[in-house]
UniProtKB/TrEMBL annotation:
<keyword id="KW-0378">Hydrolase</keyword>
<keyword id="KW-0820">tRNA-binding</keyword>
<dbReference type="GO" id="GO:0000049">
    <property type="term" value="F:tRNA binding"/>
</dbReference>
<protein>
    <recommendedName>
        <fullName>D-aminoacyl-tRNA deacylase</fullName>
        <ecNumber>3.1.1.96</ecNumber>
        <ecNumber>3.1.1.-</ecNumber>
    </recommendedName>
</protein>
<comment type="function">
    <text>An aminoacyl-tRNA editing enzyme that deacylates mischarged D-aminoacyl-tRNAs. Also deacylates mischarged glycyl-tRNA(Ala), protecting cells against glycine mischarging by AlaRS. Acts via tRNA-based rather than protein-based catalysis; rejects L-amino acids rather than detecting D-amino acids in the active site. By recycling D-aminoacyl-tRNA to D-amino acids and free tRNA molecules, this enzyme counteracts the toxicity associated with the formation of D-aminoacyl-tRNA entities in vivo and helps enforce protein L-homochirality.</text>
</comment>
<dbReference type="GO" id="GO:0043908">
    <property type="term" value="F:Ser(Gly)-tRNA(Ala) hydrolase activity"/>
</dbReference>
<dbReference type="InterPro" id="IPR023509">
    <property type="entry name" value="DTD-like_sf"/>
</dbReference>
<dbReference type="InterPro" id="IPR003732">
    <property type="entry name" value="Daa-tRNA_deacyls_DTD"/>
</dbReference>
<dbReference type="GO" id="GO:0051500">
    <property type="term" value="F:D-tyrosyl-tRNA(Tyr) deacylase activity"/>
</dbReference>
<dbReference type="GO" id="GO:0106026">
    <property type="term" value="F:Gly-tRNA(Ala) deacylase activity"/>
</dbReference>
<comment type="subunit">
    <text>Homodimer.</text>
</comment>
<keyword id="KW-0694">RNA-binding</keyword>
<keyword id="KW-0963">Cytoplasm</keyword>
<dbReference type="Pfam" id="PF02580">
    <property type="entry name" value="Tyr_Deacylase"/>
</dbReference>
<dbReference type="GO" id="GO:0019478">
    <property type="term" value="P:D-amino acid catabolic process"/>
</dbReference>
<feature type="short sequence motif" description="Gly-cisPro motif, important for rejection of L-amino acids">
    <location>
        <begin position="137"/>
        <end position="138"/>
    </location>
</feature>
<dbReference type="GO" id="GO:0005737">
    <property type="term" value="C:cytoplasm"/>
</dbReference>
Amino acid sequence: MKALIQRVSEASVTIAGKRVGEIQQGLLVLLGIERDDGLDDVTKLAKKVASYRVFADADDKMNLSVHDIAGGVLVVSQFTLAADTNSGRRPSFSSAAPPDQAEPLYRAFVNALQQQGITTATGEFGADMAVALVNDGPVTFMLHSTNKG
């Protein structure tokens, strides 16, 4: 399981002209779910996202988490993060989890963040979404549920 996290001052998701999710200061999480992912990956990655220190403290050092600043998290499913781009000029999605496996894990990830007290907004799984954000920094990191790349 992969999470591309971006520190944002605001972010939103719009579907067919209707805003369905938005946050102010916090993290935009683009979540990629792979075939071999399970609930253990959900738990590990949700804890990592909630506690990852990417916000500045009083000394302007990245020492605070989204939980520490009482920020929000906007979670957007993005199967393209599971793409294999190692050969050719077209990505392969053979390692991406199929929708019937990925959607329950996506929902479990959102729930795991909420259970940690994180204000969480979402897009809509599988929808064609327009994501808008103001990247603060810019600060962007790729997190994994395992020790992969």
